[in-house]
């Protein structure tokens, strides 16, 4: 089973990183390119961070990977907005919502490494509700922009 997991996990990471590098090389002026590249990197980090122990990196690299996966949903959201919203521009409200989404997840990550106080009881609900909100907005924007 671990072999099957490794095959699909690392194939997915390879495809994501290939997509990011091809986007940088061939579509540097595409307005959605930065969001796609950031999405690919962050989702790849997510795949590595949640891998079975045998495949996880150790030490500082594991810490970096776990920090890179924090904004993965924000980058997916921004990429979808850039694709399906006419004349999309990154605005301060997008940045504020992204930071507000990432803060509770960052708290959990820092607690995982022993760098913060214990998680407050509401943090799981905050992450879940904000994720549902971002995904709902992403779906509505996608359907409107079709």
Number of strands: 0
The amount of beta strand, in percent, is under 5%
- Overall structural class, as computed from helix and strand content, comes to mainly alpha
Percent of residues in helices: over 70%
Distance between the termini: 39 Å
Element-by-element helix/strand order: HHHHHH
Major sheet size, sense and barrel closure:
none
Number of helices: 6
Estimated radius of gyration: 16 Å
On the 0 to 100 scale, the average pLDDT is: 92
Characterization of this structure:
- Helices cover 74% and strands 0% of the residues.
- The protein has 146 residues and is mostly helical.
- It is globular, with a radius of gyration of 16 Å.
- The relative contact order is 0.10.
Tell me the layout of helices and strands.
Elements: H1 2-26, H2 33-49, H3 60-68, H4 72-84, H5 92-112, H6 123-145
Keywords:
146 residues, mainly alpha, 0% strand, globular
Can I get a quick summary?
The chain is an all-alpha fold. 74% of the residues lie in helices and 0% in strands.
């Amino acid at each position: 089973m671990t072999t099957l997991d490794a095959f699909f996990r690392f194939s997915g990471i390879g495809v994501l990183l290939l997509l990011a590098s091809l986007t940088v090389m061939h579509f540097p002026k595409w307005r959605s390119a930065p969001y796609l590249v950031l999405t690919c990197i962050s989702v790849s980090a997510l795949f590595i961070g949640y891998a079975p122990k045998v495949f996880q990196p150790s030490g500082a690299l594991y810490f970096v990977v776990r920090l890179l996966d924090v904004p993965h949903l924000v980058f997916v959201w921004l990429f979808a907005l850039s694709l399906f919203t006419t004349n999309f521009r990154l605005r301060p409200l997008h940045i504020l919502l992204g930071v507000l989404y990432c803060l509770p997840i960052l708290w959990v990550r820092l607690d995982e490494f022993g760098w913060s106080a214990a998680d407050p009881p509401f943090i799981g609900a905050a992450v879940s509700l904000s994720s549902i909100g971002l995904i709902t907005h992403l779906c509505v924007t996608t359907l409107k922009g079709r």
